[in-house]
Design goal:
The protein is of the alpha/beta class and 480 residues long. It is built from 17 helices and 16 strands. It starts with 12 loop residues before the first helix and ends in a 22-residue tail after the last strand.
């Protein structure tokens, strides 16, 4: 397989629409709610190619901004938040219950081409004493009809990766705010297109990065902002998670879509869980920015060995050739000279770890297991108990919700609660489309760097200079 240009990963129309990324943005029919967004986006339809401006020597050309920045832009307040969920597999179905746990949220529509999954989601909503949602199951493109509804405020996208861009695009063009599971898109032009669409339609497009809301992550964030680590120097994040059995399972995923990405790209397929929290610690896009990435990858052996041991002759997986590095290691440089290490490994035996470390001139934190060493608190060159900092530095969300429901240790619920709180009260979201694009940029850029034997790849400034302005993010103040 020619890896110079990764092939189009799906036959779906959602990918055919991806050809519009970076080009003229067409307008779909929108109801009353989406009229303003469609009007704001209409200027882009007059262009057939992106207009770029050239920055200083050594920087990549950036598409010219066609709308105002979305940095610091609040949601419109409302008494009830009306949510639609597209994609009702393992992730989407799990999120339904978290939305239902919030009395000011209504799940008004669900979408999945597998009718049984939509029926299961509907039953969950009705069992909670809420009105049955509208159901969209007419093929893989029915999300377009859902997005055209006039009674939806926020669309949650939990589909396979190759469809994320097109669904987010449809949501914004129809006047909806949208949150997308990781990664937000798979191509650099798609990331720029989402940035442009968010700015033009004035709709937020967010990466639903639950790990940013982990208790440890939020505590480290507040400690970093309080100066406990001194001047920040380095951090690390990862997604090291043995997924071999799940990727070959005939039932866990809806088809082999996730495994097949290992036949298409060599780089870090899933950087967001590790990258997002460390970027928050370092105020990336809020006073610093990431400027380059250098990536290296091991041979691709793990999935083929697992297949040889576990899959019978004639299984469709035997037609696949895996090129994705079993482990990728990337070094990301920031404008302030800091270094972030990213790792990805889902193909070899490994206890779960996101690494989650942060170091500065006064000490260091490392997770898995959580431990800390800080001066002047510690003087013995021995790791110390991170829990000792809980009372002073736990985020107010974790103090208010000490035992949250849901999966992943409660971080899923904390994320949903905070996001819906921001929508309901008309607050600025904790992260925005610039963070979504930045945290996902390693997907295509690490692939290119590995092909170039580790040569650095420039990470675009998706904020177009707004990163120089300090602004709030995850370290939020509890609303009145």
């Amino acid at each position: 397989m020619n890896e110079q240009t990764p092939p189009t990963p799906s036959r779906r129309k959602v990918l055919r629409t991806t050809a519009a990324a970076g080009a003229g943005i067409g307008i779909t029919a929108a109801g009353a709610q989406g009229a303003a967004a469609s009007s704001a986006a209409s200027a882009a339809s007059a262009t057939s190619a992106p207009t770029t401006t050239t920055g200083p020597p050594g920087t990549a050309a950036e598409p010219r901004r066609l709308g105002a920045t979305m940095a610091g832009v609040p949601f419109e307040s409302r008494s009830t938040v009306r949510v639609a969920v597209v994609g009702l597999g393992n992730r989407g179905n799990a999120m339904i219950g978290l939305y239902l746990a919030l009395p000011w949220v209504r799940v008004v529509a669900v979408c999945d081409p597998v009718r049984e999954k939509a029926e299961r989601a509907t039953a969950q909503v009705v069992a909670a004493g809420r009105p049955a949602p509208a159901v969209y199951t007419n093929g893989e493109e029915d999300y377009e009809n859902l997005c055209a509804r006039t009674d939806v405020d926020f669309v949650h996208v939990a589909t396979p990766w190759d469809s994320h861009y097109a669904i987010a695009r449809a949501a914004m063009l129809n006047g909806k705010h949208v949150g997308v599971e990781c990664p937000v898109a798979m191509r650099l032009d798609e990331l720029w297109s989402l940035v442009d669409l968010s700015e033009q339609t004035r709709r937020h497009c967010m990466q639903l990065e639950n790990c940013c809301y982990g208790r440890n992550e939020m505590r480290v964030l507040r400690m970093a902002h309080a100066g406990k680590f001194g001047d920040l120097l380095h951090g690390a994040g990862a997604y090291n998670h043995d997924l071999r059995a799940l990727m070959f399972s005939p039932t866990y995923y809806e088809g082999p879509w996730r495994r097949r990405w290992h036949t298409r790209l060599r780089g870090d397929l899933y950087p967001n869980h590790g990258f997002g929290p460390v970027a928050n610690y370092m105020d990336v896009n809020r006073g610093d920015r990431v400027v380059s990435i250098s990536s290296f990858g091991t041979p691709a052996l793990g999935l083929a060995e697992y297949r040889a041991e576990h899959m019978p002759p004639g299984d469709p997986s035997w037609k696949e050739t895996y090129i994705e590095s079993d482990r990728t290691i990337s070094l990301v440089q920031t404008a302030k000279g800091r270094v972030i290490r990213l790792e990805h490994d889902v193909s070899t035996p490994h206890p779960y770890s996101r690494i989650n470390s942060l170091g500065g001139t006064r000490g260091v934190f490392e997770d898995y297991p959580a431990r800390v060493y800080l001066e002047p608190d510690h003087k013995d060159d021995q790791w110390h108990d991170f829990a000792a900092y809980a009372d002073e530095f736990d985020h107010w969300l974790w103090k208010e919700h000490a035992n949250p429901p849901g999966g992943h240790g409660g971080m899923d619920y904390i994320m949903v609660y905070r996001l819906m709180q921001c929508v309901r009260l008309g607050l600025v979201p904790d992260f925005d489309v610039y963070d979504a694009a930045t945290w996902t940029a390693p997907v295509p850029l690490s692939h290119e760097s590995i092909k170039a034997k580790g040569a650095p790849q420039e990470i675009p400034d998706f904020t177009r200079g707004e990163w120089r302005k300090a602004r709030s993010g995850m370290d939020s103040v509890k609303p009145a």
